[in-house]
Amino acid sequence: MIEAPEGCRRFDVITIFPEMFAALRDFGISRRAAERGLWSLHCWNPRDFTEDLHRSVDDRPYGGGPGMVMLADPLSRAIGAARRESPASRVIYLSPQGRALDHEAVVRLAACPSLVLLCGRYEGVDQRLLDEVVDEEVSVGDLVVSGGELPAMLMMDAIIRLLPGALNDADSAVEDSFVDGLLDYPHYTRPEDRAGAKVPAVLLSGNHAAIRRWRLKQALGVTSLKRPDLLAGRVLSKEEKLLLEEFRQESRLATFREE
Ligand code: SAM
After folding, report:
1. Which of 116, 189, 237, 241 has the lowest tally of Cβ within 10 angstroms?
2. pLDDT of 140-188, one tens digit each?
3. Helix ranges (DSSP H) in the chain
4. Residue nearest to ligand 1 atom 8, measured at CA
């Protein structure tokens, strides 16, 4: 089992598009986990914290240039309101300039009972607000999307999967890619024979020890082919070394047969 503290995870999301979060709240595993009371969502729309007639949340950038910048004050009030309800929260700004989100970061964030997630829009957020309230910036990759909502949902979904009771079969999270430092092994389902492409015989054998060994061999082999960097820092056990060598020999043999 993956260690994560008990209790409900609380997410306070600062967003001008709260409706987008229905995608997470109303579908699949995250929906079921919410129904089981494992996490709760509280959206705070900065527009509700404006004081002008037009309910402005953005303005032109000082120094000129393209686009608009999110105003500090409505965001500051929205974050203040969220923190009054959840004072111990860590404030995360979803940003392409942040630390890359990976499995390790998700496990660390899953240990926080509550998070305030600040979703930027336009060219971003007035730097003074970021300097004032943000504990950490998190990026979902070296690319730019239009707003922080999708990155926030990506991060929330990854956290929710780790909460005890979120998955029907808790073991499936343990066997996912990256959890043990390896990529996942290949999966098969019916039919056994699909136009001549057969399910590996060992998976039909009912021999659990052989299946475990085959899966570990595949996970090691697939990782060495697709993500050798993951293996570079890993001290392989005697069994793992043997299985990886077997995988390589079998791959060489298969290539030789094809030629
Ligand atoms: N001008 C900004 C820059 O180049 O760094 C990009 C602004 S982006 C169009 C608008 C918002 O989307 C950002 O404030 C951030 O909240 C979110 N965002 C965009 N790309 C992201 C990424 N890779 N990871 C996390 N959030 C991202």
Report:
1. 189
2. 999 999 999 999 999 999 999 999 999 988 777 888 999 999 999 999 9
3. 22-25, 28-35, 72-85, 103-110, 127-133, 149-162, 171-174, 208-226, 228-232, 238-258
4. 146
CATH architecture entry for 193-258 = Orthogonal Bundle (1.10)
Gap between the Cα atoms of 217 and 74, Å rounded? 54
CATH class of the domain whose range is 9-162: alpha beta
**Using alpha carbons only, what angle is made at residue 164 by residues 170 and 149, rounded to the nearest 5 degrees?**
105
Domain boundaries, the chain: 9-162, 193-258
Q: From ligand 1's centre to the CA of 15, what distance in Å?
A: 13
Catalytic residue selected from 96, 164, 184, 246: 96
- Does residue 14's CB lie within 6 angstroms of at least one atom of ligand 1? no
Nearest alpha carbon to residue 239 among 203, 215, 206, 208:
215
- Going from the Cα of 98 to the center of ligand 1, the distance in angstroms, rounded, reads 9
Residue 96 annotated among the catalytic residues of the structure: yes
Q: What is the pTM of this model?
A: 0.94
> What is the Cα–Cα distance from 157 to 42, expressed in whole angstroms?
15
Q: What is the mean pLDDT of residues 72-100?
A: 97
Tell me if 165 is assigned to a ligand binding site: no
Angle value at C-alpha 12, between 46 and 87, nearest 5 degrees: 105
